[in-house]
Structures are given as C-alpha cells and as structure tokens.
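Note to self: keep these together.
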Amino acid sequence: RFRYAKKMFSAIQSTHMDSEGLVDYAAMAEDRKYRDFQEAICEFQRVDIQGLDHNAKLAFFINLYNLVVLHAFTELGVPTSSIQRSKYFDEAKYIVGGFTLSLTDIENGILRANRKAPYHFGKQFGGDRVAVEVLPLKQCEPRIHFALNCGAKSCPPIKSFTKTAVLEELRIVAMAFLEGDDNCRVDEKDGFLYLSMIFKWYAEDFGSSSLDVAKFVVQFLRGAKKEALQRMIDANNVKRKFLTYDWSTNAKAHRKFKTDSWMGIFG
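Structure:
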C-alpha cells in the first residue's frame, strides 16, 4: 500500500525535476497523475495501526512522514519562515487508521514515544487517552532524527525503511549523517563537539549532558573523528556547539504558502 503510493509520487516528481535536482512543485500539483496519487493515499485510512509490531510501526511512520512532507510541498506550498514552518508541521495532516495525524504527531507523538515537540508546551498527545494507548512507540528511537526529512537542505536524505531491517537501516543512516562535517565536527584541541541543530531541538533524546551526547555520537563515527571524540570522552573534556541549519529546499517553483488559512487533511 505505501510502496505503491510512494512509487506514484516519485514518478510524478521525476517528471518535474530538472538536471540539478530542483523540483517544480507547482507543475506537479497540476499533473493529471497527481490526482491519481491523491486517490491512492486514501488507502492509508485502512491501515491497522494496532496490528503493527514495533519495527513495522517504526518503518511505516518514518516512510510516511517523508512522503507527507513532499506531498504538502506540492499541495500547500513550501514554508519559508519559522511561523510558516510551525503551521506546516502542525496542520498538514493525513488520515491513517482512523486517526488524523500531523507531521508533529508522527514525529513527536509516535516516533518519539509521545514527547514534547520543540517550542510546544506539553506531550504531543496530551490527554487523548485513545491516541496515547494506540499510537506511540513504547520508547523513543533517537536514530529517527537521521531518517526524517523535513524538506530542508540540512535534513538527512530520504531513504526507504523496511520492517525486517529497520534497526540496521537506522544504524547505517546515523553513521552516514554523522560522518558529514556539516552535521558533526570534532575539535579535539579546544574540546568542542559541533553538531547539527537537531541535537539542540531534540536534546532529551540524546542525553542530559555534553558527555552523554558525545557517548551517543561516538558509536556511529569511524576513523580519526571517532578516535578524537573518544579521547575527549576519556578526558571528560566535551563542550557542545551547534551548526547553522540550512532551511533551503529543492523547490524550483511552488504554490504560494499562506499562513492565514486552514491547511487541510489529506486522504
């Protein structure tokens, strides 16, 4: 069900992508096949969420999140400010298995095991007893942050995840993300560990101190970077700094994004 919808969307996107990888989302929205895709995602209403085991739920909702982001780019336009992004993540929604879920619900309510989203005031599902019982993973999986792509240049690249190998796939994407100096740099001389802003926004997922975060990160590093960070850990000399996040996207053209209107529910 998901693979079919994703294949349809990818085919439409490829048609409207130039040689530099930039996408004309405005043209996509007018493509006849895009309407077929919108009909196909109605099938997500029939997903049996309670019937998914941990790994199946993990893989399904990572894949779904990455699809919803691009679908919303096409249908709603691309957010270009912090206010627009906040509205975008909270109000672009899919109906899945009888639940109406935003991107914030998927990331923070389900994949982070019902934790508070950045710049929000409480746990994602709050007092919604049914949602709390049915939707969240049993525990937060911090490696989702190396798999979820919100459409920005600084996000991890989009990959497909499978229920049979999702844990190994998450290990691989964590290594790939942290290998890049744009996301993780080690300055052994001055004792600084430079990290993506993801580690600031979701700090509780990675550890309560700089040393704890370094111990999390080092397990996914290789070579000289790993050795340098391990020496810093052994010397208890780790201070964190955060790298600038690039919110630019691969959109060549898109619909004008409006913050003063209700955004809508897909499916």
